[in-house]
Amino acid sequence: MIKILKRDGQLKLKYTPDRDSDPRWIDQNLEKVGNVTIRRTFTFKRSRLVQEDESDSEDSRTFVLGIADGDFYKIDRGILGIKHHLFLSKLMPIGDKTFIANRDISIFGKIDRLVDEPIVVGGDSKGVIPLEEFENLVRNFPTSTELTRYANARITRTLKDYFGTMSDSQKKMESYLNKKRTIRAKSRVEFLQSYEPRKFEFVRDELRAMLEDADAYPEKDWQKIIVSFLLLIFPKYIAVLENLHVKDFTDPAKTKNRYIDLTLVDVNGTIDVIEIKKPFADCLISRNKYRDSYTPRNELSGTVMQVEKYIFHLSKWGRAGELEILAKRKAELPSGFDIKITNPKAMIILGRDCDFVVDQKFDFEIMRRKYANIIEIMTYDDLLRRLDNIILMIVRNYSKLNSAPRLPSD
Q1: What is the pLDDT of residues 14-29, one digit of tens each?
Q2: CA-to-CA distance for 37 and 64, rounded, in angstroms?
Q3: 60 with 23: CB under 8 angstroms?
Q4: Which end of the chain has fewer CB within 10 Å, C or N?
Q5: What is the pLDDT at residue 409?
Q6: What gap in Å lies between CA 300 and CA 20, rounded to an integer?
Q7: Residue/partner pairs of 92-99 with CB below 8 Å, 24 or more apart
Q8: Is 48 exposed, middle or buried (0-12, 13-18, 19+ CB in 10 A)?
Q9: Secondary structure class of 193 (helix, strand, coil)
Q10: Of 134, 136, 104, nearest in space to 122 by CA
Q11: Cα 389 to Cα 372: distance, rounded to the nearest angstrom
Q12: Where are the alpha helices (DSSP H) in 213-297?
């Protein structure tokens, strides 16, 4: 067991082993190796060992974890094995769960892999992690059950192509199609009345299942699956061009090459940009108000800027770009097809809005409307609602057709 103490202007870690353990293993490691690692997170040298009280010599050991530095405790990067020193606000509660998640996962070790600057928690300066946000991060760190589900999901997806493992929605679709083969032939309209809503139900159920285990999908796999769904939902698009090369003319002295991850081509050959992000939590708008309004988060505003640049580069390229794209991607398009770069638009799919409060929904909608003439910003919950509405209206419209009075035959 470890306990974090705030004493004498220092942050201290007191380690007490379980009943059947002996703290002298720490002494042995310090003697032989020169350092000791506790809970796979903290690594201390002998110089950090202090005598906190009489119990230290018998059943516990205490180390200096951090020292006061203004309004923060400064923790040496070597202790946590991170690239920069860590700074924790003196005002925040600090315990073992501040540092360690389930299965002895180092929280700051994980954060450090994703950033390349000092990690500062608490305070009002620019670039710090607000205390409320950090507490939310710790609360939502994956549990043991989630990690197991993630591992199982990744294994299932890997073996799926070899063992025929199917999701529930795939099984439902397969069962439905098998039943269709045993039913006597019907008219084409009757078949569509039965099949059409099931196509959208399949996409909706698959999407829901994916959202439950989103971490099991690498970014590229996630994008490919979502795009395949979009081709079913938006039949005006007939082709997807991945990693599309475009020219960047912003520097008059030198033309640069850029690459757009995904573009869609409609039935008339017009190119649109699509940007698909995995549904990370809290990536849309802030949790707290700024001057009585919720503001876009960096992930959202950065993605909008990214697609605006893509649109700019495509439009600037003009006819020369149309011909070059067609020459390079001809094999992916219908015979005799032509590519057109005509006022490209963009679609962004990212984030969840299911936990928004009323004011957040309102401010998010205002922000979406701002870009609506060029960019459609859609959350995954938007997509699910759209699918539900499509299914509802298909069923309702076909019901009206079936109940309409028929004209007498000659």
Answers
A1: 999 887 678 889 999 9
A2: 14
A3: yes
A4: C
A5: 47
A6: 51
A7: 92/121, 92/122, 92/131, 92/134, 94/4, 94/6, 94/11, 95/3, 95/4, 96/2, 96/3, 96/4, 96/39, 97/138, 98/4, 98/138, 99/41, 99/42
A8: buried
A9: helix
A10: 134
A11: 21
A12: 219-233
CA distance linking residue 216 with residue 313, whole number of Å: 34
Pairing of strands 346-349, 375-378: parallel
* Exposure class string for 254-279: b at 16+ Cβ within 10 A, else e: eeeeeebbbbbbeeebbbbbbbbbbb
Non-local CB neighbours of 241 within 8 Å, separated by 6+ positions? 262, 263, 264, 265, 271, 325, 329, 332
Report pLDDT for 340: 94
Predicted confidence at residue 155, as pLDDT, reads 61
Q: At 140, list the tokens.
A: 């939502």
Which pair of structure tokens corresponds to residue 304?
């909008």
Q: What are the tokens at 360? A: 């957040």
pLDDT along the chain (410 residues), means of 10: 92 87 88 93 94 71 95 96 95 94 90 90 86 87 70 62 56 60 53 76 92 86 91 90 90 86 94 92 83 89 93 92 93 92 93 90 92 90 93 81 54
How high is the pLDDT of residue 89? 95
Please report, for the chain, the start and end positions of each structural domain, with discontinuous segments joined by +. Answer: 2-141, 169-397
User: Which residues on adjacent β-strands are paired with residue 58?
Assistant: none
pLDDT at 53: 67
Tell me the one-letter amino acid at 37: T
Give the strand pairing for 346-349 and 271-276.
parallel
